[in-house]
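Hello, quick one for you while I still have it in my head. A protein chain has come my way and I'm curious about its shape. Can you walk me through what the tokens say about the fold? No rush at all, and the record is pasted right below.
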Amino acid sequence: MVSRSPIEWTEQTWNPIVGCSIVSPGCTNCYAMTMAARIDKMTLQSHYAGLTKKVNGKQAWTGKLALAGDYAFHAPLRRRKPTTYFVNSMGDLFHEDCPDEWIDKVFAVMALTPHHTYQVLTKRAKRMRDYFTARSEAKRNSLIAEAAAAIANHDKRASELHYLAGHNWSLAEWPIPNVWLGVSTERQKEADDRIPELLATPAAVRFVSAEPLLGPVDLSILHGPDSAPVGHPLVDIGALRLIEGLDWVIVGGESGRGARPMSIQWARELRDQCARAGVSFFFKQWGEWRPAGSHRAGDPGRFAFGDYEYDRTAMVQVDGYPRQFTMFGARSTMQRVGKKAAGRLLDGVEHNGFPKVPA
């Protein structure tokens, strides 16, 4: 399934594999669960059947995965216009139950279409790294090449394209230059767990999506002695400067029913970290909540809100309306106004940074 995307940092979505399961707090209000159930109801004999179920009145993933049909799976092969695709917006390509053979087929399509750009985002960073390291590079390339040849021979319409016709395809270079790999990092814990795995994975472009941003995230150092797996190749570096290996950071608040607010200080900190490191920064949205008032770090260290008083070093969310946050001595008040009204300006500026890709 391919469709035009309302996501500000991509052009279209391509979903060769659909289905998922919840792994961390960022999944709680996942729009894809509701969308999968809606598609299933609208489409007869849909491959979305059985992907979700009702739990406490809300749609939730069942953990089942499904391959799209050939027409949807091969859609990028038929598109001549260079397009940026967000891959698997309706699932996770590196889900623990996704067979390597399915992933091989996806990479085959991406390798066969060098005029497109593919953005692959995962919450299973370790599985992503394992996919690239469990088999030798030669073996992996051979399997992807076999999948590419099978696709070119099978899809008659695709095989008519000039770059497939009569082409005995083989993987010429790795990492594939038109494939960007990224990880979701909604809090510091997810950043510490997932970014080292991303940095240990071969990729032309590496990016982080801090959306929905549910807490402060420091990308400058690896936090804690137990943040990375035993034997991880990056552990011995010590104070690992994570951000130096990243090309792009996306930040956004949560939208939709039950959306959780994002403190302005969390967004500012990531913006400023990227500016200092020369990393491209994209501010996608505030989501349902926007700042109603804020004070920068350095304001008086204690302040009162109702019956509560907070220390300047605390980072807390008050469960009420409007919602208050403090962080690094700064405070902000968030008010629910809806996604459209909230917009995507951070301190009055629209941030549309994209990674710098070699020509």
User: Anything to note?
Assistant: Residues 159-168, 224-239, 294-320 have pLDDT under 50 and may be disordered. The longest helix spans residues 137-154. The longest strand covers residues 289-295. The two ends are 29 Å apart (CA to CA).
